[in-house]
Amino acid sequence: MEYNISEILKIIGSGNRSLIGDGNFKISRLLTDSRSLTYPSETLFFALTTQSGDGHRYLRQLYDKGVKSFVVSAVPDDMKSLEDANFIVTDNPLVALHALAGYHRNRFDVPVIAITGSRGKTIVKEWLNSLLQDDIVITRSPRSYNSQIGVPLSVWELNERTQLAIFEAGISMPGEMARLKDIIRPEIGIFTNIGTAHSSGFLSIEDKCREKASLLSDCRCVIYNSDDELISRCMPDVPVKLGWSRIDSTSPLFVEKVESGGGMSRLTFCYLGGEQQTVEIPFANEHDIENAIHCLATMLYLDIPADVIAERMARLTPVGTRLEVIEGVNGCLLIHDSYTSDFNSLSPALDFMRRRAVADRSLTAVISDLSCGEGATDEDYARMAELLAMAGISRLIGVGPELKRHAGCFNLEKEFFDTTEVFLEKMSVRDFNRELILVKGAPRFGFARICELLEARQHETVLEINLDAVVDNFNAFRSRIRPTTGIACMIKASGYGAGSHELARTLQAQGATYLAVAVHDEGAELRRAGITMPILVLNPTVENFHAIFTDRLEPEIYSFDFLEALIREAGHYGVKNFPIHIKIDSGMHRLGFLKEDLPRLIDMLKSTDCVTPRSIFSHLCAADDPMEDDYTKSQFEYFDECCRIVLSAFPGQKILRHILNSTGITRFPDHQLDMVRLGIGLYGIKTLHDGSQDDLRPVSSLHTVILSIKHWPAGTTIGYNRRGVLKRDSVIATVPVGYADGINRHLGYGNACMVVRGVKCPTVGTICMDACMIDVTDVEHVSVGDRVEVFGESIPVDTLAETLGTIPYEVLTSVSSRVKRVYYRE
C-alpha cells in the first residue's frame, strides 16, 4: 500500500520543523537499516538511534542512492537546502515508526494472531501459516521480526489481500510490550512458554511473564500450556482461555497421551469434553510436540474440520530458522537459507548475501518455486526477478516447474530444473567457481542435498558459530559504555578459532570502531575478504612494511627500533601521515614504551610527517583478580600520566586512548576513555562469575556424530594400550573427533563428557588422532548418526578448560582448521 508524505506527516503528528519538498511523494516501503536498501524511490527511512548506532549518519549516503524521504530528529545542515528531499522531523523517530505502523494496522479489519513467549514463536508462526495458507491469505512476520523495530515493519506488510495476520512479539525490557500491543491489536493470542532468556531487565521471571502476557489482555482467546503454573497465573482474564494440558482432563484441550517413536508422535486428545481424537506429527522432540499442540489448539479454536487438521499436521516439516554460511568448492562461499521459500523471506536473504559480496566472486542464486498457499502469481515471479536484479544476482538456478514456467521474467544467466533430483543429476561441482551462492528452497525440495554437493568439507565434525550471539555480546558490552566510546574487537588467532571473515563482516555491520589482529597476514586476509574498516595489527614485524601500507593496516608501535624502521620504509614508499598505535607498558612488562621513553618518542614523531599517532594504549594484566586491584589501579594511574604527556605534545590532534579489556569493561567502566578492546567476552566466555556477565551468550559450539555403536560386557578394554576398562556391561559409541581436530588427549579416560540426546556421556580410553569413544549406555534410543556435543550449550568451554588446567582461549583456538566452520543467523 502507498501513502503520500503529507498523509504520513499528519499520522506521525510532526510539528513545523519538518522540511517537505514534495508532499505528494509516494511511499510504500519503510527502512530502518541503511544497509538493507532495495527500492530507494519508494522508501521512507527512519533515522533511529540505538545501541548499535545512529541512523542520522547515513542520511547523505541514502540520499545519494535515491532515497528522498526521511524521518529524523534533526536535519543535517548540509541537507537543509535539498529541494527534492522530505524531512519529517520528530523528537523520536522510533515512536513515529510505531505511530505509522499502528495507523496502518487500524485500517484492516482482519483477525490477528499474536505469538509471544521465550521459545518457539517463529516455529509456531510458520507451522500455523503452513496449516492455514491453503484456505486463507496470510500476512506474517518475516523470519523472527518481533522487536520494537521488527513488529512495526511486520505490521506494515498488511495489504488489501490479507485475510489473517500472524505476528510475533518479543521483549527484553519492562514497558516494551505495551507499545507492541498498540501496534498489533491481536484477537487471538498464543503464549508458547517462559524461560530465562532476556531476563536481565526484569525483577523476576514472573515479572517478565506478566509483561509478555499483557500483550494478550484484549484478546478474545488466549492459548497456552495450563500445566505451567506460572503462565497460568499470569494469563489475563479474556472471554476464552484455551489452556491445554497433558495432566488435567478438565482442561479445554486435554492431551491424554503422546506416543513417540521412529521420529514421529501420535497425540490422543479431547477438545471441550468431546470425543477422543488423534493426530500424528512427524516429530518426537519435546519442544516440537509443545509447539505442535499450540498449533492444534489454534486450529481447533478456528473450527477447522478434524480430518483437515489430521491431514495437515501429518505433513508438517521442520522450520529452518537459520541462515548458514559455509565454505564451498572451487573458491565458492555458500549461504544456505533453510527458512521458508516465499517472496517476503527472499529479500532478507538477499540482503544477508549482499553484505558478504566481494569483488572477485559473482553472485548466484539457487532458488525453488515460491511457497504460497494460493499459489504464487505471475506478479510474484516478476517481483522476484526485479528483486534478484536489484541485489546484483548474475546467475539464477531455478528448481521447480513454476520457476521454469516463468523463465521469461528473468533477464540474467539462468538455468531451470524440474526437481532437485534432476539438478543433482545434471550439475556437478565443476559448474561452480568463485561464486557467492545463495541456496534457498522450500522444505519439500530438499535443498540440503545441494549444499552437501557444494560444500568444500564433508567432515562430520563441525564448529558452529552463532553470529546472532556475536551481535548480542557486542551489544551487551556496548550497553556498559558511553555512546561516544568506541569498541575495538579482537579477532586475532582466526577469531579465537571461530574464523575471522564472517565475524569481521558482522562486526563491521554492527559499527565496531576497529578490528584488531595479531599479525599482518590476518589483516591482509580480511582485506581480501572485503573488510574495509580500520584494522589494528598488534604484533607487526619489520618484514612486511610494504604490505602494511598497501592493505592499510595500522601497526602497534612497541619499540624505537620498530618505529625507526617503519618511518624509514614509509619515506621510501612516499607514505604520509600513516596511522600508528603507541603501546605503553603500564605493568604487563611484555611490550611497549615506558614513561621515561616518551620524550624521545615524541621527538621522533614530531620530526616526521610519514606517520601520525592514532591511539595510545596499554594492557591490563590482572583486571579479573580483585586481589590485584591496587596493582590495576597503579596501571591506570601510570597510563593516564603517559597519555597526558603524549596528548599535550600534539594539541588539537585526536588521539584515542584505550586500556580496558573485556573484564575491565565490566569492572572498571570509569576508565573506558575513548575506546575499549573487546576480546574473549565477544565470544561469550565469562571472565567473571559474579553474575555481572550473565547476559553473554556462547558463540562457538563443537559438534560431531556417532559413527558406530557396540555392546561390550564388563571387563572389556577399549582403545590404545587397553587403558579404557569397562566396569559394567556398556554401550560404546565411536565418534569422529580426535586430537587432530583439537581434542586434547587429557580429555580421555573419562575426564570429560560429551552430550548425546541430552545425556552426558564420559569418554572411554584414550583420545585417538581422528576419533574417540564415549559411553552411551544411559542414552535411550541412541543410534548411529545421533548428534554429539563436544562443547556448547550443555558443555561450556570453561568446563573443558578447567579439566585441562588451562583457559578457554586455548580450547577455542585449538580447534583444527580441518573442522568445518558453519556460521549462522537465527
UniProtKB/TrEMBL annotation:
Source organism of this protein record: Duncaniella dubosii
Reaction catalysis annotation: L-alanine = D-alanine
InterPro entries found in the cross-reference section: Ala_racemase (IPR000821), Ala_racemase/Decarboxylase_C (IPR009006), Ala_racemase_C (IPR011079), Ala_racemase_N (IPR001608), Mur-like_cat_sf (IPR036565), Mur_ligase_C_dom_sf (IPR036615), Mur_ligase_cen (IPR013221), MurE/MurF_N (IPR035911)
Residues annotated with N6-(pyridoxal phosphate)lysine modification: 492
CDD domains with a match to the protein in the record: PLPDE_III_AR (cd00430)
Cofactor: pyridoxal 5'-phosphate
A GO CC term attached to the entry: cytosol
Matches recorded under Pfam families: Ala_racemase_C, Ala_racemase_N, Mur_ligase_M
Domain named Alanine racemase C-terminal: residues: 699-824
Binding-site residues for substrate, renumbered to this chain: 590, 769
Record keywords, A-Z: Isomerase, Ligase, Pyridoxal phosphate
Active site residues per record: 492 (proton acceptor), 720 (proton acceptor)
Database matches in SMART domains: Ala_racemase_C
GO molecular function list: acid-amino acid ligase activity; alanine racemase activity; ATP binding; pyridoxal phosphate binding
Top-level taxonomic group: Bacteria
Family named by the database record: Belongs to the alanine racemase family.
Pathway this chain belongs to: Amino-acid biosynthesis; D-alanine biosynthesis; D-alanine from L-alanine: step 1/1
EC number(s) reported in the record: 5.1.1.1
Example of a GO biological process term: D-alanine biosynthetic process
NCBIfam families to which the protein is assigned, alphabetical: alr, PRK11930.1
Protein name, per record: Alanine racemase
Record bears the keyword Coiled coil: no
Primary role: Catalyzes the interconversion of L-alanine and D-alanine. May also act on other amino acids.
Gene3D superfamilies per the UniProt record, alphabetical: Alanine racemase, Lyase, Ornithine Decarboxylase, Chain A, domain 1, Mur ligase, C-terminal domain, Mur-like, catalytic domain, MurE/MurF, N-terminal domain
